[in-house]
Amino acid sequence: MTHSSPAAGSFLPVGSWTRPEAVALNRLPMTTFLREGADVLSLDGPWSFTLLDRPGGIVRCGTTVQVPGCWTMQDVGDPPQYTNIQMPFPGPPPHVPDEDPTGVYRRQVEVPADWQGSRVVLQVGGADSVLYVEVDGRAVGMGTDSRLAQEFELTDLVTPGRPCELVLTVVRWSAASYLEDQDHWYHAGLHRSVLLYRTPRVHLADVRAVADRDPETGVGQLTVHATTGEARSEGAQVRVHLDGAPVGRATARWEHRTNVSTNAYRFTGRGATVSAEVPGVEAWSAEHPRLHDLRVELVDADGARLDSVSLRVGFRRVEVRGHELLVNGRAVLIKGVNRHDHDPRGGKTVSRAAMRRDVELMKGHNLNAVRTSHYPNDPYFYDVCDELGMYVVDEANIETHAYLRSLLTSSEWGPAVLERVTRMALRDKNHPCVVMWSLGNESGWAPVLDAAAAWLRAYDPTRPVHYENGYLDGALAGGLTPPQSWRTPRRETDVVPPMYPSIEDLEEWATTVALPERPLIMCEYAHAMNNSGGDLDRYWAAIRRHPDLQGGFVWDWVDQALVQRLPDGTERLAYGGDFGDTPHDGPFCLNGVVAADRTPHPSLLELAHVVQPVGFAWTGGEGVRLTNEHDFTDLADVADVDWAVTVDGEDVAAGTLGRVPVAPGATTDVRVPVPPLRLHGRQVAHLSLRVGAVASWQTELARAQDAEPPAAAAGPGLPTRLALWRAPIDNETYGPRHAERWEQLGLPTAHERVQLRTETEGARVIHEVTVPDGWDDIPRVGVRLGLPPGVVAVDWLGRGPHENYSDRRAGTTVGRWRTAVDDWPVRYVHPQASGNRTGVRWLRFLDADDRVVLTVDDLDDLDVTVSRWTDEELAAAGHLEDLPAREHAYLWIDARHRGVGSGAVGPDVSAPHRIGPGTYRWSYRLR
Ligand code: IPT
């Protein structure tokens, strides 16, 4: 290595960032991080920062930035860039642009005086994408892989009690970027914490704890491998305590001896292994995340303590048996989401509080699994998953999407692949939450992936291996189509993890194709781009019907919108291209079931309902069958089962069945004491059941058979206009190009050509329209009315309270709801049609004094939208702030309204939720 003077900013072996095989130099082996308290010196906070236009180039900006933090989010003149499949810069690999923003971080650091005699290590939590380290102008090392910590030993470079200068240089674009071609924002900088830590010279370098538990007998088997570091200490012992009690000890082995046969045949490596049986140990699961404290000590021959570390373990067993993934012997259903580290202000820097909130929100919405798409997430996230209970598929930071079929077949990328996979496993091995290792995403197939899978299986036989592209072999090699193409998964994956399969393909797989020895778990499905998430109920009906389907991970958890400050000082939520980033992929980064600020989207509320762990079915009369889908929890331990009867949304009776014992996986029949009902006119009665916050259900009990209620006074005759179009949702713009087709059919102006026949009978308004032949699959058949001025709130009876569509309404109930007009639509970052409500029977529009301005009733379970914006305005807007502020609002009453599907990437709206040619007739009363 060469180094320039510190004043020049950094040492960088020329061109090393452009070499795929230059993975790391002088970097320490990955271990589980075990130090805390006074042994750690945080270097988080402000650092002096210089941005160069390229490594060793000219200064573009000198300032102070926060660590951890992406410099792309700190106004230094180098914004983030969003691309999906395409690389953010031109290739071919390993070409790296000459102009290559390079950040030089500097800081005075004083190692505490009482660290004298200790070993001192620098840990850089995350550097995007290549890191170079120097201390007082002396080159220390370098390394790649933006999503794992890198450690360098500084013991001989620093003097405790005396300041030194630490310089961390980060190069933004590198050969490594080709391995990090994920669909996300490209940021740059030190996005995770930086710290120094100390250990004794003779120390515990790493601990690997395997905590197995036999689900039949409840007997735990604890095996602790402690690796000892550095110098030699004859007769030293490793001692292990579980929850404070000693469970075993073993003598540590140290160095290779001079005797060859001892070395060759007996010495298995430095350290010690302690094993112990733990009878009757409580299991860890996502439902009961029971953790135990493990303390590992290194003591010398005289019993004096040399070193001591603590960690938490959970006893559980994960295995693939036949076509099932078993956790503690149960084929758990994977109710998962894909998660990127994303914060709307921090980019890849996510606070601990935000990570905890993510897991709490997931748990609160009945989810039990996360795939860390598509790289190891922040280490704290796994601590929270251990503690709160989530099954994690831990994915290595490998995606070569733009060069999927070719890149990894070149040998120069091999070392990086092995480093990324092995270092992830070495970091996360002790987390009970990690149930599978994943080799990465969309990187084709190459022998080095087989090698990586082989390494994982040898190192850690306790977890299956997952690889998304591994199931695609039949498609890539043999030209087969799903589900036949899933039949020949490569050996590197232990599960079949298809992406965005149709329900029909899943059913066919389960009934005619399925492999007897590999579970099917969808690694991505139900692409939740803005207004999306149709047919989730049908996916889950199929999953529950077929033991060959075991759930999956929705794409994805959070909208990757970023807060952008505009020149006038206001802020907006930005997507690809908004920062002048080119190339870019526009709003394709907005696929979250929660908004960037973690407000749940209606798709999450639907998901929470369809995966709820309690099933209900009407068995006739007063009978309801309860199914307990928990794997390890009796229903009686969850909450009371409460019931309520409503008539047109008003409660008429309610009660509780108290705690109902139902064993995990079992069903039981209960009787609900429904009172006799007398219904009139068009009244409808519903029965609802609820089990705490976990699950709810509603069914229609009865409908009145009487004549219509008497007609009221004549309506105000608001101007109405035919509506056959809606502002296309992203699922209609991307994927199937309905938006274009509708434009060609002239749907936005169809009211000028297609006749709407309207009759009135007293207050009743009756519409009829004939949708011409050939107008297949249009978004709606309805009318748009202008509402009187002064309307600020809506009170209605129908499905709610949140937005719902015919293919995404399982998570709603029929009831009486109220909302502000402004809150009726959903503020998707990329404006589009939103806010539909199905099954509407009446609406009342209220002014600021709560006076009823207009009543629209006698709707026959129609689809209704209320909005201050027209479809034309929504379709023309790129961002929310492009929409006009308006006093008055519009009301759409539709005979039919198209579903949402998930067609941007995945199945389009299914047949029952499409609208075609024919004559439609619908009516309502205006008062
Ligand atoms: C798939 C990717 O794995 C994911 O990262 C994301 O890009 C998602 O789809 C789309 O939003 S790739 C796609 C080609 C199926």
UniProtKB/TrEMBL annotation:
<dbReference type="InterPro" id="IPR032312">
    <property type="entry name" value="LacZ_4"/>
</dbReference>
<dbReference type="GO" id="GO:0005990">
    <property type="term" value="P:lactose catabolic process"/>
</dbReference>
<dbReference type="InterPro" id="IPR006103">
    <property type="entry name" value="Glyco_hydro_2_cat"/>
</dbReference>
<dbReference type="GO" id="GO:0009341">
    <property type="term" value="C:beta-galactosidase complex"/>
</dbReference>
<protein>
    <recommendedName>
        <fullName>Beta-galactosidase</fullName>
        <ecNumber>3.2.1.23</ecNumber>
    </recommendedName>
</protein>
<dbReference type="GO" id="GO:0004565">
    <property type="term" value="F:beta-galactosidase activity"/>
</dbReference>
<feature type="domain" description="Beta galactosidase small chain/">
    <location>
        <begin position="678"/>
        <end position="927"/>
    </location>
</feature>
<dbReference type="InterPro" id="IPR050347">
    <property type="entry name" value="Bact_Beta-galactosidase"/>
</dbReference>
<dbReference type="InterPro" id="IPR006102">
    <property type="entry name" value="Ig-like_GH2"/>
</dbReference>
<dbReference type="InterPro" id="IPR013783">
    <property type="entry name" value="Ig-like_fold"/>
</dbReference>
<dbReference type="GO" id="GO:0030246">
    <property type="term" value="F:carbohydrate binding"/>
</dbReference>
<dbReference type="InterPro" id="IPR023232">
    <property type="entry name" value="Glyco_hydro_2_AS"/>
</dbReference>
<dbReference type="Pfam" id="PF02929">
    <property type="entry name" value="Bgal_small_N"/>
</dbReference>
<dbReference type="Pfam" id="PF00703">
    <property type="entry name" value="Glyco_hydro_2"/>
</dbReference>
<dbReference type="InterPro" id="IPR023230">
    <property type="entry name" value="Glyco_hydro_2_CS"/>
</dbReference>
<keyword id="KW-0378">Hydrolase</keyword>
<dbReference type="Pfam" id="PF02836">
    <property type="entry name" value="Glyco_hydro_2_C"/>
</dbReference>
<dbReference type="InterPro" id="IPR014718">
    <property type="entry name" value="GH-type_carb-bd"/>
</dbReference>
<dbReference type="InterPro" id="IPR008979">
    <property type="entry name" value="Galactose-bd-like_sf"/>
</dbReference>
<keyword id="KW-0326">Glycosidase</keyword>
<dbReference type="InterPro" id="IPR011013">
    <property type="entry name" value="Gal_mutarotase_sf_dom"/>
</dbReference>
<dbReference type="InterPro" id="IPR017853">
    <property type="entry name" value="GH"/>
</dbReference>
<dbReference type="InterPro" id="IPR006104">
    <property type="entry name" value="Glyco_hydro_2_N"/>
</dbReference>
<dbReference type="InterPro" id="IPR036156">
    <property type="entry name" value="Beta-gal/glucu_dom_sf"/>
</dbReference>
<dbReference type="Pfam" id="PF02837">
    <property type="entry name" value="Glyco_hydro_2_N"/>
</dbReference>
<dbReference type="InterPro" id="IPR004199">
    <property type="entry name" value="B-gal_small/dom_5"/>
</dbReference>
<dbReference type="InterPro" id="IPR006101">
    <property type="entry name" value="Glyco_hydro_2"/>
</dbReference>
<comment type="similarity">
    <text>Belongs to the glycosyl hydrolase 2 family.</text>
</comment>
<dbReference type="Pfam" id="PF16353">
    <property type="entry name" value="LacZ_4"/>
</dbReference>
